[in-house]
């Protein structure tokens, strides 16, 4: 299975490398949001920190990943509609390799996007006191978040009847950070909005990443983050696998 997955992964990554504008396009919106909030709104937002880009960056990274996984749905949709997926299942390839190739492609391409966003943030003044282990923990959280959303993306990629339908699901995910602690502290929100913001996955993930990058004391946020990411990933994996079997037999 590993060798077949590697071949299929190589095919998808070559397609991306031939058209790197995909990665750049995914990075543009989060970067523009970061520029807008830091240089236009940043002076009017009270977060209790002296460097707003430091406060903002974790949420921007999650937005970039949510935007990037939409291309997983699109690539899978194109493989299904073109008949390439049906061709693959007639070959001596373990069927799970087909989906895992798309998942690993998403993981690698989103990692490149995250690096681009962090480099821009560094130019804007982002600084972190995290040590190497804390950076690895941040990378692990972002990786789990990517895997969770990617398996979620597999479902519309298999079910959608159009390109628009394959990618439309990502829009709520991209804007979910706005109703969280990503841009402003939840304490400033109205009661009902605050209740939602403090009990949705983005807030715990943002808080965990922020703690790792700047003070190292994660607390219970790390366990809440792991529960959300692993829970979403497992549920999405089950439904995606069932849809794959139903779609292709």
Automatic annotation (TrEMBL):
Database matches in InterPro entries: ABC2_TM (IPR013525), ABC2_TM_bact-type (IPR047817), ABC_2_transport (IPR000412), Nod_factor_ABC_transporter (IPR051784)
Main location: membrane
Molecular function in Gene Ontology: ABC-type transporter activity
Subcellular location: Cell membrane; Membrane
Protein's membrane topology: Multi-pass membrane protein
Protein family per UniProt: Belongs to the ABC-2 integral membrane protein family.
Annotated protein name in UniProt: Transport permease protein
Organism whose genome encodes this protein: Halalkalibacterium halodurans
């Amino acid at each position: 299975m590993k060798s077949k997955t590697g071949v299929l992964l190589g095919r998808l990554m070559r397609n991306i490398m031939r058209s790197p504008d995909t990665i750049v396009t995914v990075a543009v919106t989060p970067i523009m949001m970061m520029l807008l909030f830091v240089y236009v709104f940043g002076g009017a937002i009270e977060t209790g920190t002296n460097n707003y880009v430091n406060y903002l960056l974790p949420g921007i990274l999650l937005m970039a990943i949510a935007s990037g996984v939409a291309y997983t749905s699109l690539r899978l949709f194109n493989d299904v509609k073109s008949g390439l997926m049906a061709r693959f299942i007639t070959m001596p390839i373990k069927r799970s390799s087909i989906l895992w190739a798309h998942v690993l492609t998403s993981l690698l391409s989103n990692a490149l996007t995250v690096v681009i966003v962090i480099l821009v943030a560094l130019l804007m003044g982002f600084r972190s006191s995290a040590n190497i282990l804390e950076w690895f923990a941040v990378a692990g959280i972002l990786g789990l978040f990517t895997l969770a959303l990617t398996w979620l993306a597999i479902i519309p990629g298999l079910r959608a009847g159009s390109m628009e339908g394959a990618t439309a699901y990502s829009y709520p995910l991209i804007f979910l950070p706005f109703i969280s602690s990503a841009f402003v502290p939840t304490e400033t929100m109205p009661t009902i909005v605050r209740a939602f913001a403090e009990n949705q996955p983005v807030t715990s993930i943002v808080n965990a990443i922020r703690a790792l990058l700047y003070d190292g004391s994660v607390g219970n946020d790390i366990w809440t983050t792991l529960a959300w990411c692993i829970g979403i990933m497992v549920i999405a994996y089950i439904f995606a696998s069932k849809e794959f079997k139903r779609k292709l037999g």
